[in-house]
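Quick illustration, no need to memorize.
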Amino acid sequence: MPKTNIACAQIDCVIGRPEINREKIIGRTRAAAERDAKLVIFPECALTGYAFESLEEAVPFAETIDGPSSEALANVCRETGVYAAAGFIESDNGKFYNSVMLVGPDGVVGSYRKTHLPFLGIDRFLSPGDRPFEVLELPFGKIGLNICYDISFPEPARVLKLLGAELIVLVTNWPPGAWRSPEFVVNTRALENHLFYAAVNRVGNERGWQFIGRSKVVDCNGDTLAEAGAEADELLIVETELAEANHNHIVNVPGAYEFDRLADRRPELYELVSRGSSEVSDKLQFVAEASTS
């Protein structure tokens, strides 16, 4: 199977200085290309910074998907032949989103808007993602995009797997309280969906928030292929065979120990998962009352 080098660019960035952050991203993209990477991934809000105190403070640094940052990324991708994913604050028709752009030699391939917003940083003031999940097909594999807090919910990764994703790219800004995500959750999402997972965090201190690094790439068996440190800028290059994610039928002992995490699902029993919060509350109340009657 063909192998693909993925680069995790664990960097620090400067809040409110997109021109400085763009130059760092361009430099790391060139460095990744020199090490034969086909995809280089940057953190959440890598172009803008994250710890804004209000929407008004962040708006001057927001961009449309066809703005100066995507143009600059497209230029370096065209020069190097790589693809790059970078987080930014997106402006679109008066709304603002925590987004990630995926750019290649021919320009923007696609983007994703963060679906699940925690009460933290700029996410306190943005609109939640409003588009269906999608898989982007690149020359070397099928890629799904998520952002930070999305990893806390199993549904986005499962939907992307069902859409054919071989790799989920998670751009993130994990502060200290999020240490369980690199410790446990990244590997779990990869294992339970039998796909590769690349999570790229930032480092550095921004307005009192010390980000914890630990960017990592996990294979479709849930095993860590490589992990960055907790403090320093680091360019992690990881060799993968993304097509392995399509071999969903696992044979440990022929005829005695086999499984398939897609074929073995029982979706007819999961209907409650797709209900809204109020419907779930009503259902739980009904169950509680029935159990005491």
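The chain has a mean pLDDT of 95.
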